[in-house]
Write a structure and sequence with these properties.
Length: about 160
């Protein structure tokens, strides 16, 4: 039986048994690529309908974090303290997952007011270690709980 495979029209012959065996190995290989997932939940967040973080392979994805204090209230004093509180919460998630702040490779910052970018940036620079991760900052029309900021991060475990 002659079959043509691929864009280059490579000619090869396959018996039905070889084709089935090949599909078996392909399926087994794809199953190995599927990464185990582990959920990170911090104390006090059990009732929330999302995870604080999810680890897939060597990568941690954090949920968006607002600048709240230990009682769940927004940090007082404006965007600076809210930024520091949000990053402190991200640090707790990162550490609970077995990562470090220096493992963060990407950050997304959502601001309620883009005019607070400069003040947010000062607080951000004081917390996030060098080299700084890639970052996107956007203004959102509104954030939950009337927050001034929400931050999410992606970290990759160093080998």
């Amino acid at each position: 039986m002659n079959n043509f495979i691929g864009m280059n029209m490579v000619k090869c012959s396959l018996s039905p048994g070889c084709a089935i065996l090949g599909l078996f190995f392909l399926a087994a290989s794809l199953a190995c690529l599927a990464q185990e997932r582990r959920v990170v939940k911090l104390p006090g967040t059990e009732g929330l309908p999302f995870s604080d973080g999810v680890i897939a392979g060597d990568t941690l994805y954090t949920a968006g974090e607002e600048g709240i204090d230990a009682k769940g209230k927004l940090a007082t004093g404006g965007i600076g303290p809210e930024t520091q509180a949000a990053l402190a919460h991200i640090e707790k998630i990162v550490q609970a997952a077995g990562f470090e702040l220096k493992d963060i490779v990407s950050v997304t910052v959502y601001l309620a007011d883009i005019h607070e970018f400069s003040e947010m940036n000062k607080a951000y620079k004081s917390v996030i270690p060098d080299p700084k991760p890639a970052r996107a900052t956007v203004q959102a029309a509104a954030l939950v709980n009337d927050a001034r900021i929400e931050i999410s991060a992606i970290a990759v475990r160093r080998k």
